[in-house]
Amino acid sequence: MHPLALLALLVASASQPMSAPTPSPVPVPVVVGAPAPNPAVDARARDWFGRLQRNRIDYSQLDDEARLPLNSDVAIIVSSQWSVLGNPLAFDEIQVQTPAAGSTEETAGGNTVYVYRLLFRDDVALDFYFGLDPSGRISGLRLAPEQ
Fold first, then answer.
1. How far, in Å, CA of 90 to CA of 85, rounded?
2. 35 closest CA partner among 143, 139, 117, 145
3. How far apart are CA 20 and CA 7, in angstroms?
4. CATH number of 3-19+31-145
5. How far is it, in rounded angstroms, from Cα 20 to Cα 25?
6. How many Å apart are CA 107 and CA 101, to the nearest integer?
């Protein structure tokens, strides 16, 4: 197994607590669609990927669900793992997950999740999940193996 592929698996497991949703007895209605260009969100996602690599976390931009698991110890671990990847050669939005029409913030969380495909050297591809709550605060950050 290529060292960066192994790192991707380690990164995914280390980052899962940051975005693991609480199981709900009620199915959460979500609409998954093709991305519509949103340069502001794309730039913010790129910026946050870099912040996580450099351990430059601005906790004021995170909502409570994202802030609590991303304490300073976890941020150091994420930074040390993600920085090894280097700068992405490609950073492409591949999916947007939004609450379904008619769902309430209580059942759907009201969060929108932007999924980006990142390509690194040696053809390592990972998916970066960047969640925003209805007020624009970051609700989740996750790097996982390409789906």
1. 12
2. 117
3. 20
4. 3.10.450
5. 15
6. 12
Amino acid identity of 14?
A: A
Q: What is the sign, positive or negative, of the torsion defined by CA atoms of 80, 123, 129, 3? A: negative
**C-alpha angle 69/20/37, rounded to 5°?**
100
Neighbouring residues of 32: CB distance < 8 A, sequence distance ≥ 6:
95, 96, 97
Q: What share of the chain in percent tops pLDDT 90?
A: 60
**pLDDT tens, 71-124?**
999 999 999 999 999 999 999 999 999 877 665 554 446 899 999 999 999 999
Question: What is the reported pTM?
Answer: 0.75
Domain boundaries of the chain, sorted by first residue: 3-19+31-145
Residues 6+ apart with CB under 8 A from 125: 117, 118, 119, 146
Rounded to 5 degrees, what are φ and ψ at 65? -65, -35
Task: Return the structure tokens found at 69.
Answer: 């698991």
